[in-house]
Specification:
Elements lengths: L19 H9 L5 H21 L3 H17 L6 H8 L2 H9 L37 E7 L12 E5 L20 E5 L5 E7 L4 E2 L5 H8 L5 E2 L4 E5 L6 E2 L1
Antiparallel strand pairs: 1-4, 2-3, 2-7, 5-6, 7-8
Helix pairs in contact: 1-2
Length: about 240
Amino acid sequence: MASADKVQTPELLDLTIDNITPNTIRINNQTKNARLKYLMDRLVTHLHDFARETRLSTEEWMLALNFLVQTGQISSDVRHEYILLSDILGLSLLVDNINHPKPPNSTEGSVLGPFHTHDAPTIQNGASMTSDPEGEPMLALCTVKDTAGNPIPGVRVDIWETDSSGHYDVQHSEREEPSERCVMVTDEQGRFFFKGIKPVSYPIPHDGPVGKLLELLGRHCWRPAHVHFMFEKEGWDHLIT
């Protein structure tokens, strides 16, 4: 970190509530990173406009800061509470749509969610991704195609779902190995098929600050039954659905 005497501080305006925004932008604009400069410019502008528009109180400001602290404190290697927060604010899906715009006839993208891991085993067609004896057996027959209906071979498919109790494997403290998740590769006809369990509806983690926020907003914490799929192949757009 540069010492204070080596940083060229720009000339600032006499500080008032009206010019605190351009003052903040001016002192932040010393970075040589043009993208960072632009992002901070827009962030400060919109953040200050929000405070002015809502007449944000000191108590509300402090409540928000403590909420962010609690969000960080409950996060871990297998629980990313900030992703959960981003999801309920609609930001995750918005960013995904901005970065991965979909042409007509293609599958819309969805969010990664907080429970994806990188330790799923690779399995062959017809193998099982579940170790849950309580789940209703399911055979999933799938084909990956382009927008013209042509099969796409060699696609890496990352698949994950909850167990029959509505929990992902990483939510169990006694987890020893991955379950209800796998990685597959499509064959020459773009096909992949696997055994799993019929997905069930489940609540998002609501024992933390995001769950308390949902309660304050009058929203429920339940998600419809679903299976996650993530498709990757060099030269093709990344898709989560």
